[in-house]
Specification:
The protein is mostly beta strands. It is built from four helices and 31 strands. The structure holds CU-O-CU linkage and copper (II) ion (CU).
């Protein structure tokens, strides 16, 4: 007897039915999952056409088991707030890997950091991840092992956590932004230069969204479209603007903003997400262009094209996103933790099978993290479960660092450089010479990694972890 599995049904619902009568604007592989059914994810390596001219060898990608899509870019995973999400990773690379679920507050054992929260997943082995995401929004997943190579060669995908109470959009576009570092022959060149790793990080050569240079997506004319943007690049900080349509920022790093702001220009650094509500232009064929204006000459990131007759929707009609838990910090009773981000004397990092770059350039509190070893260094600090902490992060380097905390959210409280919004987040871009206070409730027990998300900085010392007990 044959029958259509629940998963198949959900899969088509996710692609074609999730936005009511709206257009299916994401032709790409997308899947929602029944709670009992693990999503089967393979990490594998192979040839992919990236630059439109010649296949690039040794691209690392995530694929759903049995994926027949002609689109090799990473599957967009979808689940619902509070529902059990299960993913079975099968490692078909010829090196160990893991999956980290960036921005998700989950049990420590599911966090995907080798030697800190789990053993390696070796070639041919599997690992079952399971958690129930407490927050809805745009999150993502990527390896935490030999990270510069594995992410640089492609591994990083979007994880959307939905909430049925969210307003209904007429369409949705998910943009996974990243560069590939290729030579003129379309093949990978060395992933980093030590001189650049000691500065801003080494930039890729081919800019992509969803692994395509300047892709274009059709969206319903006059409609309201949710655009979920992920900066999955290992180095690049984006300054994004959208020409040709009205847009509002509705969420940052997965969390709804307290007040929507018109999108003028938004800074999105490695690891961060930006959710926009876009009011599509009314006339069929009109193009809206998402551009990166950093450092100077604007570069096209992606285009949206209005199709059909205008739905005549209004941004003002859009109801609020369902709320996330927030950070309930008791600032009158907070313990301060100094966190100095600095350059360090250039020494060779200790050997690490999980991908040392062979150098240390950076440090947190003067300690350059020695790399992922079976014998990690002491935690930066030990936190008591349930207490409030103020992370006093001070950047004494001339470079910006998108600093990221696993397992818990924080909220910016004050900065010497700018007016900060009390945004709930997992990643904060610390500017040169900035001192910022991040408030945090230590509500999740375990060892939680804290690192710069410019992966060369992470892998050359700017890493540590907190122990919450
Ligand atoms: Cu997005 Cu430690 O990672
Ligand atoms: Cu950094």
């Amino acid at each position: 007897m044959t029958f259509v599995s629940r998963r198949t049904l959900l899969k088509s619902a996710a692609v074609f039915g999730a936005y009511g009568a709206g257009l299916a604007v994401m032709p790409r592989l997308s899947q929602a999952f029944a709670s009992t059914d693990p999503v089967e994810i393979e990490a594998l390596s192979g040839d992919v056409l990236l630059d439109g001219k010649q296949a690039t060898r040794g691209v690392m990608r995530y694929a759903l088991a049995g994926q027949t899509s002609t689109d090799p870019s990473p599957p967009i995973l979808r689940t619902k707030r509070g529902e059990a999400f299960k993913a079975r990773l099968t490692n078909r690379l010829d090196e160990p890997t893991t999956i980290h679920w960036h921005g998700i507050r989950l049990p420590n054992t599911q966090d995907g950091v080798p030697f800190v929260t789990q053993p390696y997943v070796y070639t041919g082995d599997r690992f079952d991840y399971a958690f129930s995401p407490p927050d809805a929004g745009t999150f993502w997943y990527h390896p935490h092992c030999n990270t510069l190579t594995q992410m640089g060669r492609g591994l990083a995908g979007v994880l959307v956590v939905e909430d049925d109470r969210d307003p209904v959009f007429d369409g949705e576009v998910v943009l996974n932004l990243r560069d590939f570092r290729l030579g003129g022959d379309g093949q990978f060149i060395e992933q980093f230069k030590p001189r650049d790793a000691a500065k801003t990080g080494t930039f890729g050569t081919l800019r992509t969204a969803n692994w395509q240079p300047e892709p274009r997506y059709d969206v319903p004319a006059g409609g309201l479209v949710r655009v979920r943007i992920l900066a999955a690049d290992v180095t690049r900080i984006y300054n994004l603007r959208l020409n040709g349509a009205e847009a509002q920022i509705i969420a940052i790093d997965g969390h709804p903003v307290p007040e929507r702001l018109a999108l003028d220009m938004a800074v999105v650094s490695p690891g961060q997400r930006l959710d926009l509500a876009v009011r599509v232009a009314d006339s069929e064929g009109m193009e809206m262009v998402l551009e990166d204006v950093r450092p100077s000459t604007p570069k096209v990131v992606a285009r949206l094209r209005a199709v059909g007759s205008s739905l005549k929707r209004n941004l003002g009609d859009l109801g609020p996103l369902s709320e996330n838990a927030g950070v309930d910090a008791d600032l009158s009773n907070a313990t301060e933790i100094p966190l100095l981000l600095s350059a360090t004397a250039e020494t060779a990092a200790r050997d690490s099978i999980c991908g040392t770059l062979g150098y240390s350039f950076w440090a947190i509190n003067k300690v350059p993290y020695p790399g992922d070893t079976p014998d990690p260094t002491a935690p930066i600090a030990e936190l008591k479960l349930g207490r409030t902490y103020l992370l006093n992060v001070e950047n004494v380097t001339p470079h910006a660092h998108p600093i990221h905390l696993h397992g818990m959210n924080f909220k910016a409280v004050s900065s010497n450089k700018r007016e900060v919004q009390p945004l709930v987040s997992d990643t904060y871009l610390v500017l040169p010479d900035e001192k910022v206070q991040l408030a945090l409730v230590a509500d999740n027990p375990g060892d939680w990694v804290f690192h710069c998300h410019i992966i060369e900085h992470q892998k050359t010392g700017m890493t540590g972890y907190f122990r919450v007990t």
